[in-house]
Amino acid sequence: EAAELRDEIARLLEILEDPTRLDQVLIDELGEVAKLHGTPRRTVLLAASGAPTAAAAPLEVPDEPCHILLSSSGLVARTDTADPLPAEGRSAHDVIVSSCVTTAHGEFGVVTNHARIIRCQAIELPTVPLTATAPSLTGGSPAAELWPLEKGERPLAVVTFDPDSPGLALGTRAGVVKRVKPEFLVRDSWEVMRLDDGDALVGAVELPSEDVNLAFISSDAQLLHFPASLVRPQGRTGGGVAGIKLAPGASVVWFGAVDPGTDDVVTVGGSSGSLPGTEAGVVKVTPLSEYPTKGRATGGVRCHRFLKGTDTLIAAGIGARPVVAAAASGSPVTLPEPDPRRDGSGTPAAQPIAGIAGRAGSHIAASQE
Q1: Is 292 a domain residue?
Q2: Which one of 1, 10, 226, 260 counts the least CB within 10 Å of its CB?
Q3: pLDDT higher for 57 or 202?
Q4: pTM of the complete model
Q5: Pairing between β-strand 222-227 and β-strand 301-302 as defined by DSSP bridges
Q6: CB 133 within 8 A of CB 86
Q7: Is residue 36 part of a domain?
Q8: Which domain does 277 fall in, by range?
Q9: Is residue 38 part of a domain?
Q10: Which residue in 55, 365, 28, 363 sits closest to 217, CA to CA?
Q11: Which helix (H) or strand (E) holds 253?
Q12: Does 31 reside within a domain?
């Protein structure tokens, strides 16, 4: 028996060492399996022609005009039409701090507080349908998920790449103002202003025309507005010119383009010792027409009287009536009725205010520092 096993092992080793014999054994055994367990073929193999079997599908989104909207809570979306935006009603994430018009397959720019403009595609944004009430960006996307923002960088405004646009107006924390007609570079992003160390943009707006005013509001409650024509446009690497004369220790909390005939001023007084975003403060609404126009690089006019326990503006904004406000969560905050006293002290706010703007973004880019 041992001899028989040795002979069988030797025979099998010869098969394993000879690839040709091994292949034949496998073929024979697979043939036996097919005879015993095979079933009729249920597929047909066809010779490939080499031609592609798929064709490009037509784009489902028509290239129609649309609004690009940026909310005070940092959400971005586009509308499905460029019809006028409704101004009635209140809902979450409805404080639109900036808007522009492009097409569904068009491009637009986002200006950030780092004085950078980012090239963006409208088709990448979620769509919010227009209804009978003011648009809500609850279904929008957070800006940080759409674009590669740096640490501490946030969007201030959305702008067009229209070569016939009057250009952008920019204002910084240190009170510098600049007008620029940005070059449209073949890049994903580029600089629109040279900032000094420690400075940052607090507001940016695409000018609707030359016939508007530019306005600053400082932390010590000084408001200055002057014609945009007093600022000569510079190239994108220019550092701007003096906009508002600041007192020692003061900084700009809001900058934008304004219309004294239709706009209201919102100021929120609070304590400089409170943690940002935790104090509701006292809020006041006053028509911008109550504040006289002054020259560029002057000190402005007092726009809020500080009572005991308040020593700074914790939020401010100017917008077309009706001005609206929201908390950091995007929930609406009710504002008081307009007070004609330009240096009134205000009334207690219901909750901390994080965003202020005119309805439908109008021509305003609101900010809070």
Answers
A1: yes
A2: 1
A3: 202
A4: 0.81
A5: antiparallel
A6: yes
A7: no
A8: 65-361
A9: no
A10: 365
A11: strand 252-258
A12: no
